[in-house]
Each structure stands twice: as C-alpha cells, then as structure tokens.
Amino acid sequence: MQISQTEMEKRIVRYGELKPCRTAFIDAHTPGSNQKENFTIIGGGVSESADQHVHIKDTPGFNIGAAGQPPKCRNSLHSHRTAEVFFVLKGRWRFFWGRWGNAGEVVLEEGDIFNIPTGIFRGFENIGTDYGMIMAILGGDDAGGGVIWAPQVIEDARDHGLVLGENGKLYDTKKGQSLPDGIKPMPLLTEEELKAFPETPVQEVVRDYVARYWDLMALAQKAPAKVIGEKALLRDKPGFEVELLTRGSIPEAAYVNERHEVLMVMRGHWELAWDGGASVLAPGDTCAVPPGLQHSLVPAMTGEASLYRVVATGEKAGRTWRG
C-alpha cells in the first residue's frame, strides 16, 4: 500500500489549523460556559450545532475531538452512552461528576488521561491560569448517539435563549429561531430515569479510570505503555485501545497496522514516514493512519517526546467493562 504526500497530509489535522465552534452545545449561552470552543477532528462528534466544522469526516470506529476553554470556563453536566476519554494537552483541569456534580472530582495535569465511566453525568472546568485544551476520544462511529444532559442544564439553557429539540438540534431564540413544526423540545429526564445514572465514588474513579502522565512515561521507557484496553493499566473494552509512546518505546523498524490507527502528539516533534512520503507532527497534531500502510515514527528533536496512539479494536462500543 502506498499513499502520496498530498493524500496523507489530508489525514493530518494540525493544531494551529483547528477550527472551533462556539455554539456546539446547549450551554453555549449559559454564563460560565459561554466561552467554550469545541473541535471536531475525526468523525461527526456529538455537536448539536450545524456550525460545527468537521476536519476528517470518515470515522475509524471512534471519534476524535477537543475542547478549548479559558480559565474558569466549564462544560456542563452531561452523559454519553459510549466511552469518553480525555487527556490534557494544555493547562490544568478539574473533572467532576454526579447528578449535581458533587459526587466527586479529580484534577488532571498536562498529559494525564481520564477514561470517564460510561453512564455518569460529568463536567469539566479549566482551573489553570491560561487557555487550556483537552483532547477527546469518543467511542463509536456515531459517538454514541449524542449527549444526554442533566435536566438543570436544559432548563438553564432555555432561560438564556437556547432550546434543544427532540431531534438533537439546537434552536437559538435570540436569533429568532423556533422549533420546526412537529419537533418537540427534548424531554427532561424523569426522577425514575435519573436513578440509572450512578454516583460513582471518587476512590473508584481515581483507582480505575485515571492514569497520570509521568507514571505512563516511566512505564513507556522500553515498550509502549498500554493505557486503555483489556489488558491495560485502565482495563476496558470501549471499541479502541490507547497506548503512550515515548522516545524509548517507539518501534525499531517500520510497521504495518491492519486496524485504523490515530496518532495524537502530546510532547515533542515526531517524524512520521510512510511508503510514499514523510511529515513532522507537532504537539496537538492528530494523524489518521489508514490500515495496511507501512510507517515509522522517530522523534525529530532531542528532549521530551510522547504521543498517544489510539487503535480501533473492531468491537462495538458499549458500556465500560470491568473484569
């Protein structure tokens, strides 16, 4: 298999070329959340707005996205039917969860990764001093069918002019928009339905779902650190596997992966070479490597170098697995 330089560059999304959407979700007008920027890098993501730009539309069995927020900006409580994994690219972030967001919280630093338990309400906030960015991996080609919002989020949004239709689309009453004929507002979850969303203890979350960057760097000195997978540090089968590679754990020779592979650079510059060309990936860049392509990775500079490698497993994305 061979791919030209031009074709492969179309499969690389540069950090500096990311196109944000500021109206992606229902809390886009809600004070405290109205400065969010959402990015859809690979796949359609879960945006509720037609304004969302999609960089690479084809999905490899999962979606890649990102969220950028200034200090003190937060993302409102929501849930997903499939996996949602974040790693911190820039800044310092507080993740919180539960029906009211007070069941527990954890603070993540740059490089830390969080495999958020499926089926719980979760939110996050930039608690750093500068603009921050977190990268996201969402399970499934359709990212689990959208977002499930805590009832108070929908009510707050309505008070600030945004209405979510039962079709999963947003309508901005401040712009004169209204629900189309035959489309009703998204119904609020009932108290009975809310009982299905667990209040996961903080000790369990920190133990089973969070991996710290410098721990992974130590594990990846001679071989890739298996971060998420059936036999990984965070044992799970979300439809994809995640590894951390560093300078000491890169493959010694070019290799071929018969499954979809996505490279997400955390630190340093990496030279990606393939049968047909070569390119340098920088921090924040995302590259979708097609199955069957022989390729190699080499740090292009001295100093710290790390990247997350995400590989599709072919399994149907589902609820978090424990065993």
Automatic annotation (TrEMBL):
Under the heading Pfam families, the entry gives: Cupin_2
Q: Which GO terms describe its molecular function?
A: metal ion binding
Indicate whether Transport appears among the record's keywords: no
Traced from the root, the source organism's taxonomic lineage reads:
Bacteria, Pseudomonadati, Pseudomonadota, Alphaproteobacteria, Hyphomicrobiales
Q: What's the source species for this entry?
A: Sinorhizobium medicae
Q: What is the name listed in the Swiss-Prot or TrEMBL entry for this protein?
A: Cupin
Which key words tag this protein in UniProt?
Metal-binding
The residue ranges of the Cupin type-2 domain are 71-134
- Gene3D superfamilies in alphabetical order: Jelly Rolls (2.60.120.10)
